[in-house]
Specification:
The structure holds two protein chains of two kinds. Chain A is an all-alpha fold. Chain A contains 14 helices and no strands. In chain A, helix 7 packs across helix 10 and helix 8 packs across helix 10. Chain A is globular, with a radius of gyration of 25 Å. The N and C termini of chain B lie far apart (55 Å). Chain B is built from ten helices and five strands, in the order H-H-H-H-E-E-E-E-E-H-H-H-H-H-H. The chains are: A mainly alpha, B mainly alpha. Chains A and B meet through helix 2, helix 8, helix 9, helix 12 and helix 14 of A and helix 1, helix 3, helix 4, helix 7 and helix 9 of B.
């Protein structure tokens, strides 16, 4: 009672606001519950869906295999499933501070090798599956993982270059970072999908997935570089002086003293950038790759199931939300630690 | 170059003067027909991009500031709802949200004959949002409304998506800016006898603006760049028209260069303007 008086009805204007919100909730929430649960059709029966008033979750029930695994051969779906589980496991494992040791990179190399074997197959009696048929959730996760894995070292070089004393290197790094940050990701993806092939010597072709991946890496590197530069600037100047005083050469100074501290400071901001990058992988839909969002969109193309876009995108939102919210909880945890 | 010759692709900007030969769904300011040149088509794209970006920035700023203030309110319901909004919107890709809004408008709204009319003269249907202007009001004729002004489903979905998405980020910036103002300032204002709204308006916000402006600039830039996702729902923005141009002429290098050049120009102009504004309001 006391709580309600303090937090809801502290003054006349606040009482009005509270009542207004309660009225809005009463107007919107019950119809939403009717739509999403009570009147919803859960069976994969499109006639019942068309006849019913509520949401058609049957669409998801019918299409979930395609949404999650794309055009991967149906009977082999356990392979992308296992690969997805391993990849998520690797991310969760790397989230713990206690595991931030040099052998973590070996764990990753091993894990990714297993994922590669599972996805491609061709060994141990597993059927070969070309990567044009990869799709769905695993493609989104792989684009994110490889994008970050390659963008990260590149971004460290860019950040160091931007703070370099050598004007040419600094100019190049500033120019690169500002150019990439000034244009939309789509223009880079278009560049990779339509412009890059024009520059290759005849006879050489690069896979579309790889081209998109390269564009994503170039894009992410520019953004991560700015975060790392922030970390570099946050280190007390004394640390730089001390490293100099020890007469360490540049690379040992940087790798042993400066970077470990800078990266530690930058972790929350880095994770926020990882979230943004994970969301940005959905843009590969525009150049025709089958990531999670494309598989959702393509399942709507089947004539029997057109017109259930709202349900499909609510489902897609929830999938993305689970991953992003987990990451953002994690980065918030860091803010509370300090 | 040898590649280009082999594929019989011309180079240079000569194609800009040729007839485009494709229709554009809507044009914010310029009149355009398929007989016009590629240059004019691209200009239509640029104005369409600017139209959605400018209106989006205005709505996102208003909405975001309101939600950021709500988030700090003492009212539990208001605080929780705005926190939930920010949390959800920020963790779902913009492209998913655009598709969602587009689906809501084209699938969820009734047809023209059963259009909803929340206000007299305003009609919501799956053909878009119709509203009256000074000179004419929309009326049902044949299968659709005639007269008045219309927000097409593509434009409306893009605008709603961009504005609500960016608003969530702006809300967090506004909140951080206000929290950065020293508590003593609020207490001092209170001691002077200013009411709570007066304190916010006269004491807190002017000081918070100093912290808010720089990250706000990058949100405006993000909104402008994100408007390029229009190509996915079929709103004819610059990227979408440049893409059509590239498909027709094959001149990918020039097309990409035009897209990048325009966005760089917009980015640099917004940065320059905001830097100027920022320099004006900081404490000297």
């Amino acid at each position: 009672m006391n709580w309600a008086r303090k937090n809801l009805f502290a003054s006349w204007p606040e009482t009005v606001v509270t009542l207004l919100i309660l009225w809005l909730i009463w107007k919107t929430v019950p119809p939403f519950i009717d739509w999403a649960f009570l009147d919803a059709v859960w069976r994969p029966d499109q006639k019942a869906c068309r006849a019913g008033e509520g949401a058609c979750w049957g669409f998801i029930a019918e299409k979930h295999r395609f949404i999650l695994f794309g055009t991967y051969p149906y009977e082999l779906h356990w392979r992308p499933l296992a690969a997805t589980a391993i990849l998520i496991g690797l991310w969760v494992f790397s989230a713990f501070r206690a595991n931030w040791k040099w052998w973590l990179s070996l764990v990753w190399v091993f894990g990714l090798a297993v994922i590669g074997i599972l996805m491609w197959g061709g060994v141990f009696g597993m059927r070969y599956v070309e990567n044009e048929r990869w799709g769905g959730l695993i493609l989104t996760l792989l684009l994110t993982t490889f994008g970050l894995a390659f963008a990260f070292p590149l971004s460290i070089l860019l950040a160091l270059g931007r703070r370099s004393d050598m004007p040419v290197i600094r100019g190049l790094c500033v120019g690169y970072i500002e150019l990439i940050r000034g244009v939309p990701l789509i223009s880079l993806l278009f560049m990779a999908s339509v412009m890059l092939p024009l520059f290759l010597p005849s006879g050489v072709t690069i896979d579309k997935l790889l081209r998109a991946q390269i564009a994503m890496i170039l894009f992410a590197a520019a953004y991560l570089a700015e975060v790392i530069r922030g970390g570099l600037q946050a280190i007390p100047k004394g640390q730089y002086d001390a490293a100099h005083a020890l007469a360490l050469p540049f690379w040992r100074r940087t790798c042993l003293i400066i970077l470990p501290q800078a990266l530690r400071i930058a972790v929350p901001a880095l994770v926020n950038n990882f979230i943004a990058f994970f969301k940005d992988t959905s843009l590969v839909l525009i150049i025709g790759l089958f990531d999670l969002l494309s598989t959702v969109k393509i399942s709507l193309n089947e004539p029997a199931w057109t017109g259930f876009g709202v349900e499909a995108y609510v489902f897609a939102s929830l999938l993305y939300f689970v991953f992003c919210a987990a990451m953002s909880r994690y980065s918030k945890g860091f803010e509370h630690q300090r | 170059m040898a590649n280009l010759e082999e594929r019989r692709i011309a180079s240079g900007l000569g194609f800009l003067g040729r007839e485009a030969g494709f229709e554009i769904g809507e044009s914010a300011f310029l009149r355009y027909s398929a007989a016009d040149s590629y240059l004019r088509a691209l200009l239509v794209g640029i104005t369409n991009t600017l139209a959605v970006a400018v209106i989006g920035v205005v709505i996102a700023t208003g909405l975001g500031t309101a939600i950021g203030l709500f988030r700090l309110s003492r009212n539990f319901l208001l605080k929780t709802l705005s926190a939930g909004y920010i949390e959800f919107i920020r963790n779902v890709p913009l492209l998913v949200q655009l598709f969602f809004w587009y689906a809501v408008i084209t699938e969820g709204m009734p047809g023209s004959r059963e259009a909803l009319s929340p206000l007299p003269g305003v009609f919501l249907s799956n053909r878009g949002i119709f509203f009256p202007t000074f000179s004419s009001t929309p009326e049902m004729q044949g299968f659709n409304f005639v007269g008045g002004a219309v927000l097409t489903p593509e434009f409306a979905a893009l605008l709603i998506g961009l504005a609500t998405y960016t608003a969530a980020f702006i809300a967090e910036i506004v909140r951080a800016g206000i929290l950065a103002v020293d508590r003593g300032q609020g207490e001092a204002a209170h001691a002077l006898g200013l009411s709570r709204p007066q304190t916010t308006r006269l004491v807190i916000l002017p000081q918070a603006l100093r912290v808010i402006i720089p990250p706000m600039t990058s949100q405006y830039l993000n909104l402008t760049k994100n408007s390029s996702l229009a190509v996915a729902i079929g709103y004819p923005d610059l990227v979408s028209i440049a893409n059509t141009t590239m498909n027709q002429t094959g001149q990918a290098i020039e097309g990409i260069a035009i897209i990048m050049g325009v966005y760089l120009t917009i980015s640099l102009s917004i940065s320059a303007f905001m830097n100027w504004y920022n320099a004006r309001i900081v404490f000297k």
